[in-house]
């Protein structure tokens, strides 16, 4: 049974789509130079440092701040955020904020603020790129696109459930989808 269509582009980034109650994830999240990743080397570290310099925050708030910055198109996992926060703390760029909260909030140290001052242009360019990421995604993530992709995924799902997907039928479907992709590319 086909539970989700999963295509990979030339960068290896996943483009998933499906019917009702399926997730939609359109393509690469970063760009060509980052091989489909949202952040290049050291960029997440710099974003987190800037965000805690703006105001003390804990991990969940940082995840939400990045999600808001990218207009919902990217939400980092705790498995990405917390190790980076630990690295920043070990480097002395951030420290636990004073307070009796149950969650560990961080704030930038003098060393962290100094680094941000030294790298101000880089930080500005990075935040500009991230804020434009959601705008770029909106250009093709329209309700009509979701409906059309949902229709395709629904047909594939129903066909798979019918038990009528022999090897040749699967190859015919793959050929049709590949041909459609070529036609769309030529538009």
TrEMBL record:
Residues covered by the Transcription regulator PadR N-terminal domain: 48-117
Pfam families, A to Z: PadR (PF03551)
InterPro entries: Tscrpt_reg_PadR_N, WH-like_DNA-bd_sf, WH_DNA-bd_sf
PANTHER family referenced in this protein's UniProt entry, alphabetically: TRANSCRIPTIONAL REGULATOR YQJI (PTHR43252:SF7)
Protein name: PadR family transcriptional regulator
């Amino acid at each position: 049974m086909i539970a989700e269509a999963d295509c990979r582009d030339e960068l290896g980034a996943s483009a998933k789509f499906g019917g009702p109650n399926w997730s939609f994830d359109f393509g690469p999240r970063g760009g060509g130079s980052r091989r489909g990743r949202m952040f290049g080397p050291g960029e997440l570290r710099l974003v987190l440092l800037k965000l805690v310099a703006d105001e003390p925050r804990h991990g969940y708030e940082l995840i939400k701040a990045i999600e808001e910055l990218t207009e919902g198109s990217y939400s980092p996992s705790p498995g990405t955020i917390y190790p980076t926060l630990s690295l920043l703390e070990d480097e002395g760029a951030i420290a636990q904020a004073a307070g009796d909260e149950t969650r560990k909030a961080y704030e930038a140290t003098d060393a962290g603020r100094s680094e941000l001052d030294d790298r101000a242009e880089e930080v500005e360019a990075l935040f500009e790129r991230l804020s434009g990421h959601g705008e770029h995604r909106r250009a093709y993530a329209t309700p009509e696109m979701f409906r059309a992709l949902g229709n395709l995924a629904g047909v594939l799902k129903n066909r798979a459930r019918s038990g009528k997907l022999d090897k040749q039928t699967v190859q015919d479907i793959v050929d049709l989808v590949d041909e459609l992709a070529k036609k769309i590319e030529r538009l």
